[in-house]
């Protein structure tokens, strides 16, 4: 045995680390094991709450999510999915393996659908070797049968519990039915905990140790008093935080970061009424691209025939035509082509959703493409909402390739080859000429809603010039999703595209007279209600515009799009009111004005997360497995595990309090827009071949999840550190031939701890039990120790840079949540990386302007709650006071929406300003300084 290994083994034995904390450490935290039902397997088919029983899958447990109105009006499912089996099912079992950190009495909590006046019996069984403990739920009512939502849906989500005595170690948890019941069995989530005080409400998870630490960080970022004042005394300074990156970072914008060269375009659905206008003489036509509700066309044209309609007349506005119109609008002498020629600065796009070009037997496809190519400079892409391209490979071929895959990389290769072949075939047919894969993918804007993160960088690698995303109120933490899109655009020299959908669950906000999908009627109460009171709402839309705009979006496309104008009326009020901007239209008008008048610069994001190119992860997805594929195609490769938990863990630290807002009932803005403790300062990059040059543009890079490191990437990471970068790595994270290029510490065999000491400040922290691999520090600086001074985290200098190694396996505890040391590393890593410091309970972004100034985006995410149906009054008490601090003299400052000057108070070479952001509102503050 080498000397180093013998020394580590001796230290481990001497410290008695396994299963205990050293004397003086905090009392260990309660143990929690959280289980999403959709991660049990095998699952087959579907069993949704809105389906007739005869239409649901027989003989198994099935996916029962994402839910519809019954689930969303009860606050939503715990994550995005649930599972169910039929009432008449007599033999169905799904399983999940877990590991219990200690022996003891655990309370088992289960959230499930409790039907009025009926039993929904199912069992939970936990096997450990030849021991087994089980309990049957659903034998009697738990929810009150007069509960309002139970009266609506005939069932209500409820929690029930039992106590089980379990051993430490591996266990298999089974959900089973062995007899018919009176009602279907729908399960959302389960939790095993030793915390007797835990009483879950709604989607609430236990208070994991890491979030307790993160909340202390938020407390030091509290707002000053007098929240309604325009200028208030400064908040008391928090204790200084030692930055892990000592050198003053360069705030110049690297060239790859500049993914936009002007304001974004705003693209609106147009239809036959506008195309008919283009056929008219110039003096008679309404030339601006418009799309309005069918019943309003006549009144709209009368109102704006002789005056420019707001929004549509704006120079940043453009047109979106549906793909069936492609042959008509690109034929020779088309009025649409003439309009493009007359408006060379306006852009257009083509929507692919659920359509095919209406070719005739006389269509000259090559000529149509030739006309299309003449206007390519104005083209903003083929928009594919909820799809990669609306071309699909044969299911048998795809399933065979996925089933044969040995790794996630094999899966990604199969997806690339098969999706490319199908898409090339489709577009070659449309264009009447062969296309290369590069020519095919370049103009397509794939706009996935769920599953986007898994594909964002892959689409960049396949050649897309604009990587899209369908943003909805369903999706948590838009800032994190923008980090994927922005990082992919920067890494692959692309842009990104916002497909706005005002959905919250299955409902959408629509200011339409004509039922766009379905009216607000009991005929359609179970699912898919699109009306003025449904969906994510206009506050969600405002913040969508602002965050995407500041992030550098190339173009906006509003999915509903025909309701920027409305004609409100009422029973008593009558119907004599004029056509005017709808609430959506008023939001768009305000954002268009700001986007045109005020430069946005380039977003400043000094920290990048590095993921495996084939990471496969998305938080929100329609199938609970890598790349949103059916796990049963290849469970060994696709089934979620600690890799995905490690990714989620780092992102939850970076965007805290996202894990806590996701405990709240689902609403239109609280989950999507998060006032992160570190600000929106992160990008995501991946280990794609020939794309490692992006590393050097970031002062800090954090490895997340399991990563296979090629020789190319190993050398690039080595050179990045030696050249002055900071790289963060956890134990058991990196594999592959490139790892040997890195100067990682030697990791000893794993031991267990439940507390650690943060050495820079001398504080001790409790943690859920976690495994870590001790490291010998030598000359390295020790950041954290566990047990008897065994290094848990250390800093190793290499050249001009440093490597931060964390001994916790993948950074996770037994509870599959981050060990709190990750929170402390991130706090000290982020300190001092941005030149403008923001204090207050708001979401904030920072952009560098081309003139050397800065643009600070501020979103107040408090005070507006938008349930799936209905609206609530704004709580104006939730106005937030924000302090801005800058280490330079400010020469001029103003706010873009209000056009008001912002007063800065000099303090030596520093400056400070205090402003108020009204409840639920947004502000963009320009800060100019002498260069």
Descriptive notes:
The structure is a single chain. This protein is an alpha/beta fold and 931 residues long. It is 22% helix and 26% strand. It has 21 helices and 43 strands. The strands form nine sheets. It has a nine-stranded mixed beta sheet. It has an eight-stranded parallel barrel with strand order 11-12-13-14-15-16-17-21. Strands 1, 2, 3, 5, 8 and 10 form a six-stranded antiparallel beta sheet that branches. The relative contact order is 0.12.
Shape: globular
CATH uppermost class of the domain at 265-603:
Alpha Beta
- Secondary structural class: alpha/beta
Mean pLDDT: 94
Q: Identify the CATH architecture of the domain at 265-603.
A: Alpha-Beta Barrel
Largest sheet: 9 strands, mixed
Q: With helices defined by DSSP (H or I, 4 residues minimum), what is the helix count? A: 21
Name the assembly state: single chain
The CA-CA distance between the termini, in Å, is 60 Å
Enumerate the strands of the largest sheet in spatial order, edge to edge or round the barrel. 26-25-27-29-35-34-33-31-32
Number of strands: 43
Helix content percent band: 10-25%
Radius of gyration: 28 Å
Strand content: 25-35%
Low-confidence stretches: 1-23, 224-236
Q: What is the third-level CATH name, the topology of the domain at 265-603?
A: TIM Barrel
């Amino acid at each position: 045995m080498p000397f180093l290994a013998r020394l580590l083994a001796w230290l481990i034995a001497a410290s008695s680390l396994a299963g205990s904390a050293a004397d003086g450490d905090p009392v260990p935290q309660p143990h929690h094991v959280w289980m999403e039902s959709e991660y049990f397997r095998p699952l087959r088919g579907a069993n949704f709450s809105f389906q007739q029983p005869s239409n649901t899958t027989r003989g198994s447990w099935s996916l029962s999510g994402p839910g519809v109105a019954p689930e969303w009006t009860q606050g939503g499912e715990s994550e995005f999915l649930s599972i169910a089996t039929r009432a008449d099912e007599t033999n169905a079992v799904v399983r999940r393996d877990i590991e219990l950190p200690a022996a003891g009495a655990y309370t088992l909590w289960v959230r499930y659908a409790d039907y009025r006046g009926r039993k929904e019996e199912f069992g939970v069984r936990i096997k450990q070797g030849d021991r087994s403990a089980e309990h049957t739920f659903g034998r009697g009512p738990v929810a009150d049968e007069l509960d309002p939502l139970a009266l609506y849906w005939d069932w209500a989500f409820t929690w029930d519990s039992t106590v089980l005595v379990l051993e430490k170690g591996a266990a298999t948890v089974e959900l089973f039915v062995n007899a018919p019941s009176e009602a279907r069995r729908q399960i959302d989530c389960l939790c095993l905990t030793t915390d007797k005080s835990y009483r879950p409400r709604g989607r609430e998870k236990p208070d994991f140790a890491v979030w307790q630490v993160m909340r202390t960080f938020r407390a030091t970022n509290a707002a000053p008093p007098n929240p309604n004042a325009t200028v208030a005394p400064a908040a008391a300074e928090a204790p200084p935080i030692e930055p892990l990156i000592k050198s003053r970072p360069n705030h110049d914008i690297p060239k790859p970061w500049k993914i936009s060269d002007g304001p974004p375009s705003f693209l609106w659905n147009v239809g036959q009424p506008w195309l008919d206008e283009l056929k008219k003489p110039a003096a008679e036509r309404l030339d601006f691209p418009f799309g309005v509700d069918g019943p309003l066309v006549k009144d709209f044209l009368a109102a704006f025939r002789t005056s420019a309609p707001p929004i549509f007349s704006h120079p940043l506005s453009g047109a979106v035509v549906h793909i069936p119109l492609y042959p008509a609008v690109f034929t020779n002498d088309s009025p649409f082509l003439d309009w493009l020629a007359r408006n060379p600065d306006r852009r257009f796009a083509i929507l692919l959703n659920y359509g095919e070009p209406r070719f005739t037997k006389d269509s000259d496809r090559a000529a149509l493409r030739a006309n299309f190519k003449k206007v390519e400079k104005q083209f903003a892409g083929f928009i594919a909402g909820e799809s990669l391209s609306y071309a699909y490979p044969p299911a048998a071929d795809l399933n065979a390739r996925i089933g044969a895959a040995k790794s996630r990389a094999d899966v990604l290769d199969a997806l690339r080859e098969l999706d490319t072949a199908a898409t090339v075939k489709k577009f070659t047919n449309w264009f009447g000429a062969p296309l290369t894969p590069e020519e095919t993918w370049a103009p397509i804007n794939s706009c996935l809603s769920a599953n986007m993160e898994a594909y964002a960088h892959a689409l960049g690698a396949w050649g897309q010039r604009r990587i899209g995303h369908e943003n909805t109120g369903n999706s948590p933490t838009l800032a994190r999703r923008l980090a994927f899109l922005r990082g992919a655009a920067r890494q692959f020299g692309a842009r990104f595209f916002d497909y706005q959908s005002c959905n919250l669950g299955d409902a959408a906000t629509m200011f339409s007279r004509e039922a766009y999908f379905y009216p607000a009627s009991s005929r359609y109460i179970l699912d898919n209600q699109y009306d003025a009171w449904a969906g994510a709402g206009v506050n969600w839309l405002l913040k969508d515009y602002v965050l995407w705009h500041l992030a550098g979006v190339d173009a906006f496309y509003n999915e509903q799009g025909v309701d920027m104008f409305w004609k409100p009326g009422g029973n008593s009020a009558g119907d004599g009111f004029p056509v005017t901007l709808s609430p959506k239209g008023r939001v768009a008008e305000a954002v268009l004005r700001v986007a045109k008048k005020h430069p946005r610069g380039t977003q400043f994001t000094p920290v990048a997360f590095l993921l495996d190119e084939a990471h496969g992860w998305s938080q929100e997805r329609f199938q609970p497995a890598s790349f949103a594929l059916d796990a049963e195609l290849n469970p060994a490769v696709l089934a979620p595990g600690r890799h995905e938990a490690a990714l989620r863990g780092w992102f939850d630290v970076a965007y805290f309090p996202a894990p806590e807002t996701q405990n709240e009932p689902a609403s239109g803005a609280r989950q999507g827009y998060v006032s992160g403790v570190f600000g929106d300062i992160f990008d995501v990059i991946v280990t794609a071949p020939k794309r490692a040059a992006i590393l050097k543009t970031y002062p800090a890079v954090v490895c997340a999840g399991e990563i296979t490191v090629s020789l190319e990437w190993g050398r690039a990471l080595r050179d990045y550190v030696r050249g002055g970068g900071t790289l963060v790595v956890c134990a058991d994270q990196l594999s592959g031939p490139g790892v040997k290029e890195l100067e990682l510490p030697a990791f000893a065999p794993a031991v267990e701890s439940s507390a650690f000491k943060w050495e820079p400040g001398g504080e001790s922290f409790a943690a859920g039990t976690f495994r870590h691999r001790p490291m010998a520090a030598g000359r390295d600086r020790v950041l954290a120790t566990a047990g008897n001074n065994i290094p848990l985290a250390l800093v190793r200098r290499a050249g001009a840079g440093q490597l931060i190694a964390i001994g916790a396996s993948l950074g996770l505890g037994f509870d599959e949540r981050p060990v709190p040391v990750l929170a402390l590393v991130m706090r000290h890593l982020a300190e001092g990386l941005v030149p403008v410091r923001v204090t207050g309970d708001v979401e904030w972004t920072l952009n560098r302007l081309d003139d050397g100034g800065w643009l600070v985006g501020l979103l107040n995410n408090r005070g507006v709650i938008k349930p799936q149906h209905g609206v609530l009054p704004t709580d104006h008490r939730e106005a937030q006071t924000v302090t801005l601090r800058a280490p330079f003299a400010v020469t001029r400052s103003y706010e873009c929406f209000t056009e008001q000057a912002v007063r800065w108070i000099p303090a030596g070479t520093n400056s400070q300003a205090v402003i108020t952001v009204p409840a639920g509102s947004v502000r963009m503050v320009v800060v100019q300084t002498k260069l």
